[in-house]
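pasting for ref
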Amino acid sequence: MILLTGATGYIGRQFVKELDKRDLKFIIAAKKDCTWDKLADLIDGNNIDFVINAAGYTGKPNVDACESNKDDTVNGNIILPLQVSIACTLTGTHWGHVSSGCIYSGDNDGKGFTEKDEPNFSFNNPPCSFYSGTKALSEDLLKDSEVYIWRLRIPFDEYDGPKNYISKMLNYDKLLNIKNSMSHRADFVSTCLDIYQRKCPHGIYNITNPGSVNAEEVVKYIKKYLRIDKEFKYFKNEEEFNNICVAPRSNCILNTDKLAANGIIIRTVHEAIIDSLIHWRA
């Protein structure tokens, strides 16, 4: 039996769908139950053998909101994972935590950042957004636990919605054209559960679709498959983009060799974007 937190969120809803698809029995922890003592009671009272923490605070409509809602950001991204960690430690339960790849900046000299690289977009290595700072700090606090830390990066899929990167591109007035790693939402969740079911070693995993993509490439696919005539405009550079943001943004490429080394193969980011646009649902 699995216990899931954050079931109503963008990633949590996909976990619900995939758990049902795999016929994995699970129960959902309500927000009011996400303290270490209540979680421990749920674990003991329901024969839970694995916990998935898909809860967190990303800010609405984007991470700029985290700068003015620091209490919510700390509670969602630091305190809550610690509560889950304590409950799992007390009950001897393994667990998985949805983290973020937005704790890096750059491409690490073309190699992409591995799970062993220290975050360079964090409170320890500023400047960074408050959101990214809390996600990096949370990883540091959890890294010695018996936990899977699953890093998500710029989620997207075929379903139009406010959290979908493709939807954001369709609505933004201007785009920043820079290479990034990205995660197809269903591919991400499926990979998380593969890691759990295959009993891969605990630790951090970069879960992005292999490869990288910039805004111009995605726009090219949008025009081809959605047949949209919109004229997309671009910022001159990252500096111009940051001038309109409250918080600096992470733009980075993650290395996914660790997944391949554990026998987990994911389609490339270009394949995932094209497939999402072919099956686009408004």
